[in-house]
Design goal:
It is a single chain. The chain is mainly α. Helix content is 68%, strand content 1%. The radius of gyration is 29 Å and the shape is elongated.
Length: 452
């Protein structure tokens, strides 16, 4: 029972950290990006009617006359937005036809959720909801009859909360090129973001997030950006990131491999002090002997902290970059959108993406298991010929704690993998394969040096 409680405590702690990580980096979506997302989703009559039908269950909804006025005012705001950004001006008569009106609204209808500050230097200087609130206020003030047909305060609150909740997790806004991104039939206009914008958001965003996302974008286009292009881009970026990390942490990784190679000698030392877990004298003697062994072989046991210090911000940055890369929301691989949640796609049984998501999840989980357990398996193999005179509580406790932490980390990665974008599942898959190769190659190099 105590072991179960300890497992649960560690797991809850790691999951809490994992959830906190999602908010560690800034969201690149501008106010215009958000407004475009809202209009792309709720600008259609079908989706708006669905929202109204749902709202009727809890509050009074506006009269249809209000929505007629709302749509007419949206056209006027869109026309003003168009004229502010184009040298060739248009009048309301120029967009009288349904075709011209739909073309205008598709491009500029989002402005109904912004303000009329058309010349703002940045879209983030513009205020969300101002035009919407103006239409509601102007309509209600025309007459007492209109005031009765206008949206109530409760409906406005419901409407705004629904739209805001729909974009609460919306982050796919990092792109060096403005354009339409997203799945076919639900593409959204996204503004271009610069490296300067990234530095303005924070150190991690400027140093890691934007460059990684920029690389994904450029490589995706280079490889064709047809789904497979995005997949290949993630593979290349993963290899580059892991390669750079390997260069920075090579000494630490080599030290870890040396420690694995020294396991037979460490095991003999631990056998020499069987009561180190309870006897303070033996504990100190064992620690001293281990440090002398490490020093003799040029190993700093605390170098592993360097790996963790470097890996954590890089992990956060990759997570944020792949989650935010707009180009990953476009196209798909075997039906699977790389920006879609892996867990949601796994239970989407009516789509071909379900099988692809399950296969990716199994491959990711399997390779993570091997990459995390491989050092333990190699350590076990290295110590299998060391005689055990009897049980050593200190050794058993250390091994048990190491195994527990490894298992918790594995469970955490698998659980997080379900909630993350599919792109992150690909990253973890390639990253795990890289780790396996790195462990085997480093072990072989250290082994050869040891035999010389």
């Amino acid at each position: 029972m105590n072991k179960i409680k300890k497992w649960l405590k560690y797991l809850v702690g790691f999951l809490f950290i994992a959830l906190a990580v999602t908010g560690c980096t800034a969201n690149f979506c501008s106010n215009k990006d958000v407004a475009c997302k809202w209009y792309a989703t709720y600008g259609s009559v079908e989706n708006r009617n669905a929202l109204i039908t749902e709202a009727e269950k809890t509050t009074e909804v506006p009269h249809n006359d209000f929505w007629v006025t709302f749509d007419n005012e949206t056209v006027k705001f869109a026309l003003a937005e168009y004229n502010a950004h184009n040298e060739t001006k248009k009048t309301i008569e120029d967009v009288a036809s349904d075709e011209a009106k739909n073309e205008l609204l598709t491009k500029y209808g989002y402005v109904i959720y912004l303000d009329d500050n058309y010349s703002a230097a940045s879209s983030n200087d513009r205020v969300l909801w101002q035009n919407f609130d103006k239409v509601v206020s102007d309509y209600a003030s025309l007459s007492e009859e209109n005031a009765k047909k206008a949206p109530t305060t409760d409906f406005i609150t419901y409407y705004k909360n629904t739209l805001q909740n729909s974009t609460q997790a919306y982050r796919t806004c990092i792109t060096p090129e403005a354009g339409q991104y997203g799945a076919a039939g639900s593409k959204v206009d996204v503004e271009a973001k610069t490296w300067g914008d990234a530095w303005g958001k924070g150190l991690i965003e400027g140093l890691f997030v934007y460059p990684i996302s920029w690389g994904v974008h450029q490589l995706s286009n280079l490889f064709g950006a047809n789904g497979w292009g995005q997949l290949l881009a993630i593979v290349v970026i993963t290899i580059i990131v892991r390669g750079l990390m390997m260069l920075v942490t090579f000494k630490s990784t080599a030290a870890q491999t040396k420690m694995t190679a020294l396991q037979p000698e460490l095991a003999r030392l631990q056998e020499k002090y069987p009561n180190a877990d309870s006897n303070q004298y033996e504990k100190q003697r064992l620690a001293q002997a281990q440090m002398e062994l490490y020093k003799k072989n040029g190993i700093n046991p605390f170098s592993q902290l360097l790996v963790l210090i470097i890996q954590f911000p890089v992990f956060i940055a990759v997570w944020s970059a792949l989650q935010g890369a707009a180009i990953l929301s476009s196209d798909s691989v075997l039906g699977l959108e790389l920006s879609a949640s892996l867990g949601k796609e796994m239970i989407n049984f009516q789509s071909t993406s379900c099988i692809t998501a399950i296969v990716l999840f199994l491959l990711m989980s399997g390779t993570q298991l091997v990459s995390m357990k491989l050092p333990q398996w190699m350590q076990k193999k290295a110590t299998k010929n060391v005689s055990r005179m009897g049980k050593n509580p200190a050794v058993d406790k250390t091994q048990s704690q190491t195994k527990m932490m490894s298992n918790i980390m594995l469970v955490m990665i698998i659980v997080m993998g379900i909630s993350l974008p599919s792109a992150m599942g690909v990253y973890w898959l390639i990253s795990a394969l890289f780790s396996i190769c790195q462990t085997l190659i480093t072990q072989k190099i250290i082994g050869k040096k040891k035999t010389k």
